[in-house]
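Lab notebook: predicted structure, single chain.

Context: the supervisor wants predicted structures on file for every construct in the current expression panel, including those that have not yet been purified. This is the next one on the list. No modifications to the sequence; it matches the entry in the shared construct table.
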Amino acid sequence: MGIHGSYSPNDPALDGNGQRIGIVVCRFNEEICEGLFDACTREFSALGVAAVERFSIPGALEAPLALQKLAQSGKYDALVAIGCVIRGDTYHFEIVCNESARGILDVQLETGVPIANVILTVESEEQAHVRITEKGADGARVAVEMANLMKRV
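Prediction complete. Output recorded below exactly as produced.
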């Protein structure tokens, strides 16, 4: 069970057949981001999504602009933002976490393209490693479910 509730493998809301998904992957904290990407793409495959395109970006603050351009292209049913921000000793953590999340939300609301926010915001590298598999898979489920909802309403 993910953070968004329980999922049934036969749930029509999770049928990703025919969906086109764009994923932006941050290079900052690369090992964790690669783990999130792997978990996400494994889940997309399990949900029937065959068309996944990856885009590499420097870090979480660059995610909103990249996502905006992808959303405006009209090529994708949903998008995923993958990254990891680990708390340091300065206020920079709060700025990066808050502003990247706000920017991602703004892009969704402005474009109508759903975006699964899989940018981990954690206190330590250990916390990130614990969350990699489930958070990556959860992002795929969120993207597929929201893409289906947008088509349905």
